[in-house]
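tool_call predict_complex ligand=arginine
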Amino acid sequence: MAKLWAGRFSKDSNKLLDEFNASIMFDKELWKQDIQGSKAHAQMLCSCGILTESERDAIIKGLEEIAGEIERGEFVFRLSDEDIHMSIEGALTQKIGEAGKKLHTARSRNDQVALDFRLYTLKSNSQIRTLLLELIDTLLSLAKENTQTLLAGMTHLQHAQPINLGFHLVAWVMGLKRDYERMSESYKRNNFSPLGSGALAGVPYATDRNMTASSLGFFAPTLNAMDSVSERDFALDLLYEISMIMMHISRMAEELVLWSSYEFGYISFSDEYSTGSSIMPQKKNPDVAELLRGKSGRAYGNLIALLVVMKGLPLAYNKDTQEDKEGVFDSVKTAIISLEILNKALQTLTIHSERMEQMAKIGHLTATDLADFLVQKCNVPFREAHHITGQVVAYAESKGVDISELEESEIREIDTRIKEGVKSVLDLRASMNARDSYGGTSSKQTQSQINTLQAWLSEVRNG
Ligand code: ARG
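tool_result ok
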């Protein structure tokens, strides 16, 4: 079949070129947005007197039939149609005849693709934000149940100070909350309609871009036609946002992998979200968490790929931008399934709080508390307090116990300056609760962080 643009051509295009040039095999993903945009365009053309009502009705009916055929899997996507825009327009004209040929009045594929892709990215933005909130909700519930669960807080992956598990989970939530906010901001920034920009310079018809913008749910039309068909910032925003989400997920996933090992033994994944080994019958592997950790790679790759495609492109539309889609589709699918499965894995995992507490007794986590006690309560200069604490640690090590397990009397024998009450500051839970500064790990502060985040969550959900 002759190409829709083949008027000036006397020879058919080369098969290899068709294959190289076509985007239909991947941009068919945009069929819904393409039809949605065309319907809005036809309505507008009619209300501006460019199409008659019967032409408009035939176009809308034809587009709806095509949508049904695509939905039912009956529609044939042909390489020779090149892209989703020509595929649908061609099918429409076949179906309804002359009126179909008028649909492309006052529009170009350049603004059409910019519109379809923008609608897709905005829809994906909303979908991902909803999933972020669901994940945050799950984490906050887990946090709420674990504000008393002792955990060895780490720096350099070494035991550092006692915290509670809830506090650690709230730290995870903070990154996801920023991800959500980042996406809300970019949604607002990108919620403008490029439709009606034409090829690059606007159109010589008395069209109404405000009408299509508002009927498609945009805040307003874009301001400059040339920028509208050239820019892919909205897609890059999404790729960056997804990269940040996947980076956060990879850090959680890494901890989940560690925590589920024998060495830690902090958590077990449910069988439903674990996998086995083909050779080692005893194994239960955290593949879900490992894959989540690994998926950040492709998200970053997609971001860098599009940044490089866009680099140095002259205005206005260039075919290079056809390379914008596959990476975005891939990142969106990756983000959606990752958020969903992480949520499920968290909802179904078992937390071994006794094991966490037992492990918190390794590494003398309250040594800093002892030094502080010597300074504040025993009037010992910090340098000496540091030294005395070192002696207490050495004594505990010689006994093979943690300093929190020593008796008051044996501690006080180590140095006469150690006053009564020392035992209580070495207690892990007391130490955790002593960090009661705003934003600190005490159970009380953790609970108040959870309350703040839950209030935020219901506000964004209801507002
Ligand atoms: N398939 C093209 C793309 O994805 C659509 C726009 C083509 N426009 C053009 N003038 N060749 O970018």
